[in-house]
Design a protein that fits this description.
- By secondary structure, the protein is of the alpha+beta class.
- The protein has one domain (9-165).
- It contains 4 helices and 5 strands.
- The protein has a 5-stranded antiparallel beta sheet, sandwiched between helices.
- Helix 3 (94-107) packs antiparallel against helix 4 (155-165).
- It is globular, with a radius of gyration of 15 Å.
- The protein starts with a helix and ends with a helix.
């Protein structure tokens, strides 16, 4: 697959712009008729990211969780995709999903979800997919890399993800 097509496929995991990690600037390069089509697309994305490592799909009460196994050995100096969470319930209005993302960001703020000083981007990226005229939240969790002196609570990442997927 060419890098042009791979770039468009990776857009499912984020967006463009200043608030892209919180659902604004979400992009979608094709229509999806069902969540199973999205899962198949994520399997293709996994092959781009992992060079053949098989991902596993685990279902939970509020999301279809696609777990991408850590493909490198030991610690690296950059984040990698760790999990992709697909919301189970779609809504007719995109504003409803954006509001859930905003509320979860506000309610579950912690250094584990990013900082201003020192500047650290959130390892939890929320985006929105339109599947058969319903809007679904998607949250991609990256591996977390924090300075040793920073205090954080990784459980807040789970709280944020669950708040978005509710």
């Amino acid at each position: 697959m060419g890098s042009y097509h791979a770039t468009f496929k990776l857009m499912l995991l984020g967006g463009i712009g200043k608030r892209a990690r919180r659902g604004f600037g979400s992009l979608q390069y094709r229509d999806f008729g069902s969540i199973s089509e999205v899962v198949r697309e994520l399997e293709e994305i996994n092959s781009i990211l992992s060079r053949g490592v098989k991902m596993s799909i685990k279902e939970s009460s509020n999301s279809n969780t696609v777990l991408v196994r850590d493909i490198t050995q030991g610690s690296t100096a950059y984040p990698r995709v760790k999990e992709i969470h697909l919301g189970r319930k779609g809504t007719l209005r995109v504003e409803g999903v954006l509001n859930r993302i905003g509320e979860a960001s506000h309610r579950h703020g912690d250094n584990a979800l990013g900082r201003i000083n020192p500047r650290m981007a959130s390892p939890a990226v929320a985006t929105i997919l339109n599947v058969n005229r319903q809007f679904y939240p998607v949250v991609t969790r990256l591996t977390s890399l924090f300075p040793p002196s920073l205090k954080y609570d990784l459980a807040r990442q789970d709280d944020f993800i669950n708040g978005v997927l509710q």
